[in-house]
Amino acid sequence: MRIFAEGDFSWGVHPIDCAYQKRHVGNMAEVVLEINNLTRRFGAFTAVDDLTLSVNAGEVFALLGSNGAGKTTTIKMLTTLLPPTSGEARVAGFSITTQAVGVRRAIGYVPQAVSVDGSLTGYENLLIFAKLYDLPHREQQSRIAEALQFMNLTADAKRLVGEYSGGMVRRLEIAQSTLHRPKVLFLDEPTVGLDPIARDAVWKHLIDMRANYGTTLFFTTHYLEEAESHCDRIAIMHLGKLDALGTCKELEASLGPGHTLNDVFVHYAGTVLDSGNNFRAVSAERATAERLG
Amino acid sequence: MTATLIHPLTSFVEKTFVITEFELRKLRHDFTELITRALQPALWLLIFGQVFARSGAMHTGNIPYLDFIAPGILAQSVLFVAIFYGINVIWERDLGIVQKFLASPTPRAALVLGKGFSAGIRTLSQGVIVYSLSLLLGVKLNWSPVALLNVLVIVILAATLFSTFSLVIACIVKTRERFMGVGQVLTMPLFFASNAIFPTDIMPGWLKVVSHLNPLTYVVDALRTCMLAGSPSSFGLGLDYAVILLATTALVFIGARLYPRLAT
After folding, report:
1. Interface test with A, best of B20, B100, B122, B261 (most A CBs within 10 A)
2. Tally of domains within chain A
3. Which of A138, A155, A239, B228 gets the most CB atoms within 10 Å of its CB?
4. Does residue A96 surpass a pLDDT of 70?
């Protein structure tokens, strides 16, 4: 595995890298996500193998890798949906193995599949989660109104979500997952199935949210240009292992001049054509793309 | 000390009702299922019940057969609605809704019990249909407020019990195809190995034992006791309630343990 520390390479003029540098000069020690030797096995198959990394508060962090690399399994462990076989992780100071409820209070989660209910209105989907996250009764309406406004969904709040476009559904899911102002927002392929305009809109809201609330964004994606445009740091996983970690510039520079993130991805994630998820995961991914698209 | 005990309990109750609210809000937007579900009890009471009442094949003591079968058909309607409730959970799993609930700080038992209660409230419409048809057919109903309240509570508890059983099965089989197969296999034995449409006295010994292990038998007995005028309980209303509550509690506990499997 190659881990590129800040300062190993020249920072250049990449705006995101500069922003990252500025934020972390004043915020050096605040690690919001700490993963140590995290491993998950399913029988003889090791989905995540001895993963160790940390993410700073306010960072936008991408986990890349080909299908079946272990990205979703990693997110499931960090969101307490799946217990690790061994190893440990602390999210916002809470252990995923012994303080799961603390972790759940501190995070928001947008799964890859559609996670809002199409037979309820946008407002109702938010109201239910405002209650589940124990928002004080007197604050619920104002938080929901603010979230709807922030995600540009106020005019559609009373419509059934089944009538929403794919981009609106994703924005509603993000609003639902951030009503309680989580410290870390986990997003598993947040823009899968969306057209470029909807993807841009989703990212604009995510970046605004990070700027306004300091939320740490930890996401997986297959769209390398998203990682390049929006991320402070990128990790590349392959066959359950962490193969590379650094800023986009650092990763590109590691292969020599003139290389792109795409080259880096191919270099680390390999070119094995038969890699990929199981049938259920592929079906779910395609179903999500169909529902949103 | 007291506050530390009360807070988790009130929080658990609140979250349970939020999940119930989540389910019932869906019903408010589309209540066609309440109408379509009315057909089944109508068929059983109007066709099966009337034909068997005329045949005189069933000996039900001092109670006319139509009176005997009316609470059984209500219990059967509750069972049939609730036992397929698990398929909604599999649907929510495929969508990603289950994962989102499980990543929230909601207690797992509240997720399970809340869904169970919502099934209970959904099946109340079956009660209205069975009462209306019974009235039409001249069944001697007990209209005392206490009896009606008991019927209401028993219907909700029974639906909670069977929908939670359904959820447990869903957590084990995880796919719609397997669930439909298992659901079909379980429904009919539960129904026929109970006192819903014939008294246990006429059953062979082995079936009588099975029926005494079947929670539906106690649901039917409790409903028959409360719904009909002058129908004594076979087991005692206290035992009926105890069996229903115990089975529900055990299933909610098992469901809460198994529910996270849906996210994997």
Report:
1. B100
2. 1
3. B228
4. yes
Residues 6+ apart with CB under 8 A from A130: A140, A143, A144, A179, A180
Average pLDDT over residues B33-41: 81
Domain that holds residue A25: 2-112+184-202+213-292
Can you tell me the distance from the alpha carbon of A171 to that of A186, in angstroms, rounded to the nearest whole number?
14
Residues in B touching A76 (Cβ below 8 Å): 263-264
Q: Contacts of residue A104 in chain B, CB cutoff 8 Å?
A: 103-105
**Domain contains A170:** no
Which pLDDT band holds residue A201 (cuts at 50, 70, 90)?
confident
The CATH number assigned to the domain holding A258 equals 3.40.50.300
Residue A17 lies in a domain: yes
Among A75, A82, A35, CA closest to A56: A35
Q: How far is B105 from chain A (nearest CA, A)?
A: 5
For chain A, how long is the longest CA-to-CA vector?
57
Task: Provide residues of A within 8 Å CB-CB of chain B.
Answer: 76, 79-82, 101, 104-105, 107, 109, 111-117, 119-120, 124, 128-129, 131-134, 160, 176-177, 284, 287-288
**B5 falls in which pLDDT band (50, 70, 90)?**
low
